Amino acid sequence: GDCREVLPSLNGVDALVSDPPYGIALRNGDVDGHRSARSFQIAGDATQDVGLFVLQWAEALSLPTILFASPWKPWPGEWRNLIVWNKGGAVGGGGDIKTCTKRTWELVQVARNGAMVGPRAESVWHAPIVPADTAEHICAKPVRLMERLVRTFTTGTIADPCMGSGSTGVAAMRLGRKFIGVELERRYFDIACERIENEQRQCRLAV
Question: Quick one: how many helices (H) and strands (E) in the chain?
C-alpha cells in the first residue's frame, strides 16, 4: 500500500529506517536510444513528497530515524549523524561518462538516535556491492549495511515505509527485532515477504 495511508494507523514503532524515493527522477538503461533489460524508474521519484511525509511522521513521534538520501538532494532538517555509504566501483551512474565521475556513494542521514551500540564508528562506511546484489530491486541495499545501521542506532520495533525488496526486514530478523514494512509496488512487496519469511525460517532452524 501507500505509506502515506498506512503510517497514520501504525502504533508501537520505536524507530524508522527507510530508503524513500529521493525526488531526483532517477532513470537509467538508455542505450543508443533504446531501453535496456535493466532499465527502471522509481515510483514516486519525481518529487520528494513521499520522503518528506515519512520524515514529518517520524518527527511528530520523535522517532529515531535513518533515511538514505541523494547527496545532491539531502533531506531537510537537523541530523545528528551524516554517513557516507561507499558502494564501491562496480556500480554507480552519474551523468556523462566522459565528464562526470561515477556516483559510487550515497548519503545516510540519522536523527534522534540514542547512545550508539559498539565502538564509535567512522562516518564513511564501506559496503561494496555488485550488479547481482540489485537483481531483484535496482536500489536494493545490502543486508549487512542495514544490519549495522539498525544495530548501531536503534532499539525495538523497526518500521520501513518504503521497504522495496525487504533488506531492512531481513536485517531486523537477524537482530531479533520486530519489523513493519510497507511497499507500494506489489512485485517488490511479494519479494520482500519471501525474503523475510525465509530469514525467519533460518532463524528458527538456528535456534
Answer: 5, 9
What confidence tens digit (pLDDT) does each residue in 40-74 have? 556 666 789 999 999 999 999 999 999 999 999 99
Q: How far is CA 107 from the centre of its chain?
A: 11
Q: Is 33's pLDDT higher than 60?
A: no
**In 3D, which of 162, 128, 122, 131 has the Cα closest to residue 145?**
128
CA distances from 177 to 56, 154, 164, 198 (A): 24, 10, 19, 15
Split at pLDDT 50, 70, 90, the class of 24 is: confident
Q: Where are the alpha helices (DSSP H) in the chain?
A: 3-6, 49-60, 143-153, 167-174, 186-206
Tell me the pairing of strands 34-41 and 27-31.
antiparallel
C-alpha cell at 78: 537537523
